TrEMBL record:
Alphabetized UniProt keyword annotations: Membrane, Transmembrane, Transmembrane helix
Natural source organism: Ensifer canadensis
DUF112 domain sequence ranges: 20-438
Domain of life, source organism: Bacteria
Protein known as: Tripartite tricarboxylate transporter permease
Keyword flag Membrane: yes
Membrane-crossing residue ranges in chain numbering: 20-49, 61-82, 109-135, 147-163, 169-187, 316-335, 355-379, 391-411, 417-443, 464-488
Length: 505
């Protein structure tokens, strides 16, 4: 009953006129930027992060949530019409959705993606509201060693869940951890790795790093690829509305995708792409017409797209309750919290419940707004896809630079933006994931602080880290997090690769 009361209080906060306006601006901006080719939710959120600087914390986070959901919605449009997934989680949507678009059924494909995303987002957000309080109660008993074990779990998760190589993920993580120790030591007051540069004494700004690595690095990477043949935008022919047969074939995949995606997104070793692969495999096995898969089966769009958006809501469970980011987008959202001095976790629910529950309630409102925006404005989003790539990425470069200047008007900060942008470009060229660097910078100081507290309490006895049952369980889960993604990915991707091979034949 308490959850209902908190949710109603959150709805009251989210329904304030200014917060409704912030949510509307967020979903509109998120969808408009997310719908552009090659731009996934992580880049969308990183690019628009400076926009929220001047707002109050509640309004900023509500707009941020709208941008997050809008970016997730927008990615399906490029996947279906351009066969250009903005992120790995949209690969399966492109597989069947683009075939539907080429067959003149782009409208129903976009509609089942939008409605499926709405259904999944609604159910998953309610799941978040009811599950979060129980995880918070567990987390409130955490001490320094438990929090350190949780940080280890976060580090292992991002290293194993992003990219195809765990070693490269760990390498990227240690780059982030090295950057996190720059500045003044919180316990001793000594300067570390500042090299006599006064601007480095306060440490490296997380938002500067996130915008540089995602936006600047991506722009340089695209520019380095040179001129390529223009992507052909598939026109949406016929009605955008789904027929009765489409509804009959879609509603079960929507529900199945939701219940596959949400728990996987909420797992510390989860990830949206795992849920979409498993959803696609499940729909193919359960389909009455499996021969249509590979030729534009609507179930292959409905299920994975629902799983994708349910997983997006699921990633907010560990983020809000434990301060544990499990995706690149969640890592940037964590940076959004920290720009206001807020650390997601159980104490945030106790000290700032109106903010947290207002944020959760705003997700429900954003879901309704996105459904209203996406169906009637499909024609507008299709026109955005025709923006030439040089204009698009020049605009991204300009927007990222202006956002950094607005947040921190310093020539030195612009130099850092360029330096980290070049680092992001180099990492993309050599296949290193970007998210572990951001997570390492954000969580590195917290992990160091908790480890030093635990060792100070135990007078330097390292074995104390393993005598706590909760810490021991978290460390075991961290070890499993290195293995589980490999197993789940192999199982889900086997189906997709087999389908791709069949399509080539």
């Amino acid at each position: 009953m308490a959850t209902f009361e908190f949710l109603l209080q959150g709805l009251w906060v989210a329904a304030q006129p200014m917060n409704l306006l912030y949510a509307l601006i967020g979903v509109t901006l998120g969808t408009a930027v997310g719908v552009l080719p090659g731009i996934g939710p992580a880049l969308t959120v990183a690019l628009l992060l400076p926009v929220t600087y001047q707002l109050d914390p509640a309004g900023s986070l509500i707009m941020f949530a709208g941008i997050y959901y809008g970016g997730m919605y927008g990615g399906s449009t490029t996947s279906i019409l351009l066969n250009t997934p903005g992120e790995s989680a949209s690969i399966v949507t492109a597989l069947e959705g683009n075939k539907m678009a080429r067959a003149g059924r782009g409208g129903p494909a976009l509609a089942t993606a939008a409605i499926g995303s709405f259904v999944a987002g609604l159910i998953a957000t309610l799941g978040l509201a009811f599950i979060a309080p129980y995880i918070v109660k567990l987390a409130l008993v955490f001490g320094p060693r438990e929090y350190f074990a949780l940080m280890v779990l976060a580090f292992v998760t991002v290293s194993s869940a992003f990219g195809d190589s765990t070693l490269r993920g760990l390498t990227a993580l240690f780059v982030g951890l090295a950057l996190s120790v720059v500045g003044i030591d919180q316990l001793t007051g000594q300067a570390r790795l500042s090299f006599g540069v006064p601007e480095l004494l306060d440490g490296i700004e997380v938002t500067t790093l996130a915008v540089a690595m995602f936006a600047i690095g991506e722009t340089l990477f695209i520019a380095a690829q040179g001129e390529k043949g223009p992507d052909k935008v598939e026109a949406v022919r016929g009605s955008i509305w789904m027929s009765k047969a489409d509804w009959a074939r879609s509603w079960k995949p929507w529900l199945r995708g939701t219940f596959i995606g949400f728990p996987i997104g909420a797992m510390p070793a989860g990830g949206a792409e795992i849920g979409t692969f498993l959803s696609y495999a499940a729909e193919k096995r359960l389909a009455k017409h499996p021969e249509e898969f590979g030729n534009g089966a609507i179930e292959g769009v409905a299920g994975p797209e629902a799983a994708n958006n349910a997983s997006a809501a699921g990633t907010l469970v560990p983020l809000l309750t434990l301060g544990l980011p499990t995706t690149a987008t969640a890592a940037i959202m964590l940076a959004g919290f920290q720009q206001y001095g807020l650390q997601p976790g159980p104490l945030l629910f106790a000290t700032n419940p109106q903010l947290v529950w207002g944020l959760i309630a705003s997700l429900l409102i954003a879901n309704f707004m996105l459904l209203v925006l996406n169906l009637p404005l499909i024609g507008l989003w299709v026109k955005l896809l025709t923006i030439p790539k040089p204009w698009l990425y020049a605009g991204i470069l300009l927007f990222a630079t202006l956002g950094t200047i607005g947040a921190n008007p310093s020539v030195y900060e612009l130099g850092m933006l360029l330096a980290f942008g070049l680092l992001g470009y180099a990492m993309r060229v050599f296949g290193y994931p970007i998210a572990p660097v951001v997570v390492g910078l954000i969580l590195g100081p917290l992990a160091e602080q908790q480890l030093r507290r635990a060792l100070a309490i135990s007078q330097g006895d390292v074995s104390v880290l393993f005598t706590s049952p909760i810490a021991a369980v978290l460390l075991v889960i961290a070890a499993a997090a290195l293995i589980i993604p490999l197993i789940l990915r192999a199982r889900g991707r086997g189906e997709v690769l087999a389908q791709l091979a069949a399509n080539e034949d």
